Amino acid sequence: MDKLNILLDSTLSALKKLTTLTTLSDLETKTIGRKGELTEILKTLKDLPEDQRKEFGQAANETKKTLETAFAEKRSELETIEMNKKLETETCDITEPGIKPKVGSVHPLSKVQWEVENIFSQMGFSIMDGPEIESEYYNFEGLNIPSYHPARDMQDTFFIDKQADEKHGRLVLRTHTSPVQVRTMQKYGAPLRIIVPGRVFRYEATDASHDTTFDQVEGLLVDKNISLAHLKGVLEEFLTRLFGKKVTVRFRPGYFPFVEPGLEVDFSCLLCEGKGCRVCKHSGWLEFMGAGMVHENVLKAGGIDPSVYQGWAFGFGLTRLVMMRYGIDDIRLLKSSDPRFLQQF
Ligand code: DAH
Description:
The chain is α+β, with helices and mostly antiparallel strands. It contains eleven helices and ten strands.
């Protein structure tokens, strides 16, 4: 009992003199903590005669409660003092401007791709995807590109050292979005109206206007009684909506194995509106894409009967369109991930 009273008195008087929260915690641990002095005193309980144990136990409990209350009171007193000190010494300037978070922007390729998708969706076209790692079959044979065609050369195409399967030849990084034509015809049959935006790959030396990776948009329409007049109408409507002013389109003969007849498509120069300027090299026209009536071998590869259905297809460089739209003079900027470039859009 004496020990309890001594602990109580000495702790209370030590407590009075404390001025910091850390010394308060130290004292608390030392006295009523789990391994503290009170616990030590309680260990003597078992040495007491039975009849004194209860009384001693109660006294110890009370001592503990009294001390706990005293510690809690002192703690809140010290907390208030420390808070007031902080309020006096620390200042907060609520008029100071905040730290601006960095905000990203939509990549110009995505922006234009979304616009293209919107316009074609409104004309009833579905948007398709295809694999970037493609088989030789879909990239070439299915599109009527014979094995002696220069595009089949190792100089132009990234070949992967692996077979697709027996029937479809080796694997390649697709060199154009055209393979999705046959894939989609096989899957959905005719009639069909699709566009296919996507990345394509060429084994090429890079410079300001060539990159190994760029983006194309393929178009394919298959139905009954389809002619190039429909293609011209769709393309003029598309470009006029895209650029927000009247654009005209002209067809020139061109060769692509997967179309017959094949076309090169130009559109009227946006800057001079056909009069001739530096941008269009004084011709009034800008070269835009390849197109044509889908070759019957391609329709057959897609499982479509060419005596019932016809179609046209086109393919243009989305990357080139973006460069034209924003006046970007180096293709490599587009994949550079350079924020100084990207933040401009
Ligand atoms: N695939 C061709 C290329 O990458 C572009 C092209 C030309 C696509 C004519 C077509 C087409 O669908 O009909 O150069």
